[in-house]
Amino acid sequence: MGDNLNKQILSTLGSLDKNKIEQISKMVQNMSSEDLNNIAKMLGVNKKNNG
Question: Which helix (H) or strand (E) holds 51?
Fold first, then answer.
């Protein structure tokens, strides 16, 4: 099972468009922290408090 999953992951990663990933990375780097927090909320990412 694990070997099959690894093959699927490698196949998916191989099909990604590196130019698009680079564009998204640049967009994220230029976003405000408020925008990033809003995206995280939309995606259901829980913010962990370390205090």
Answer: none
